[in-house]
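step=encode ok
step=design start
structure_in=
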């Protein structure tokens, strides 16, 4: 998995999570990072394996972290306590690469889907720690997303293709790939690290990766229907606004790393500057993760600067930042619960729980 080469694996052999509180004045607990703007770190934790992906549940009650050792760590958001660990029963402890929660009519039932670089997609029941179903493909899986009615699950990986599964049967109902013609790029020519279904169209999805394109698919067709050139995506850095259908991409490069695109025309709307909080000073950040944080903000994070930024959509100004992380920010997520803006991010083995005070 591509991130592993950038992470120093922990030497810890036990399966514990060490929770760190940020209160107190003991010098041993002084954080190495710097907080700017309207961000407050509520708690933090240290895992025994680097974190590669994260996702809040729909109600914000739980948050899941996928680890490079194959475990999924579940935290209770209200107390920031680690409450469950989901561990696959196989000999190869290969990384969890993407997590997506599954809605349920039963408010007490929490389940999720996870992809693994070993080629597995697994459905877990969280509170019972039980594995529901699993499917194995002969491909490294890097990313996944459900369509708007949760009837289909799209998965991207290292063979340049998108697999579309029927959620009820977990049969592969479509394999989306590039055609044989070299004259048109109707599919990917390299690894796929992000997939995103249209928020209101059950058949349309986007994907991005190393080949500098956003491919737009109708999952009933075998090849991409059109494409947008310009994004070099290396992680969970592809998102679509549910109101205006603006596409957000985060690219792992020095310049123009955060961009907003018009879905209908494919036109570049804006290169969003990565800046220090409340400043116009430009900051270089190779982005691994980016997403729309509710209707008002953009959240992104990456390496080089080893930072996470919160950017206000209306002003395109950075209003909050976590700078000086010991490693890159490889994953983040956002949830709004009872008018509280929750944020989490991970840098190496370190997990941070934050509130955005706006």
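sequence_out=
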């Amino acid at each position: 998995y591509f991130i592993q080469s950038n992470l120093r694996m922990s030497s810890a052999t036990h399966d514990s999570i060490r929770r760190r509180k940020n209160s107190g004045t003991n010098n041993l607990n002084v954080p190495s990072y710097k907080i700017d703007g309207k961000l407050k770190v509520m708690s933090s934790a240290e895992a025994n394996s680097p974190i590669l992906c994260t996702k809040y549940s729909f109600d914000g009650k739980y948050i899941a972290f996928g680890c490079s050792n194959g475990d999924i760590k579940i935290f209770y958001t209200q107390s920031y306590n680690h409450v469950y660990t989901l561990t696959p029963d196989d000999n190869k402890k290969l990384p969890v690469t993407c997590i997506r929660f599954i809605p349920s009519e039963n408010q007490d039932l929490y389940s999720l889907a996870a992809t693994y670089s070993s080629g597995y997609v697994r459905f877990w029941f969280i509170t019972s720690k039980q594995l529901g179903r699993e499917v194995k493909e002969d491909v490294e899986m890097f990313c996944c997303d459900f369509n708007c009615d949760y009837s289909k699950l799209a998965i991207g990986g290292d063979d340049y293709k998108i697999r579309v599964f029927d959620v009820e049967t977990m049969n592969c109902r479509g394999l989306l790939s590039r055609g044989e013609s070299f004259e048109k790029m109707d599919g990917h020519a390299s690894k796929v690290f992000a997939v995103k279904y249209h928020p209101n169209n059950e058949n349309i999805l986007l994907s991005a990766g190393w080949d500098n394109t956003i491919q737009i698919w109708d999952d009933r067709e075998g090849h991409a229907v059109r494409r947008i050139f310009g994004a070099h995506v290396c992680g969970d850095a592809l998102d679509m606004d549910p109101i205006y259908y603006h596409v957000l991409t985060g690219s792992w490069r020095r310049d123009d790393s955060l961009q907003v695109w018009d879905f209908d025309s494919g036109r570049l709307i804006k290169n969003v500057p990565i800046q220090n909080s409340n400043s116009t000073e430009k900051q270089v950040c190779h982005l691994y993760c980016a997403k729309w944080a509710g209707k008002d903000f953009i959240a992104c994070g990456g390496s080089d600067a080893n930072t996470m930024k919160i950017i206000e959509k209306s002003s395109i100004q950075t209003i909050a930042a976590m700078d000086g992380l010991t490693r890159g920010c490889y994953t983040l997520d956002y949830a709004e619960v009872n008018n509280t803006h929750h944020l989490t991010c991970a840098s190496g083995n370190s997990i941070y729980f934050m509130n955005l005070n706006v």
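step=design ok
step=annotate ok -> Confidence is low (pLDDT under 50) at residues 1-28.
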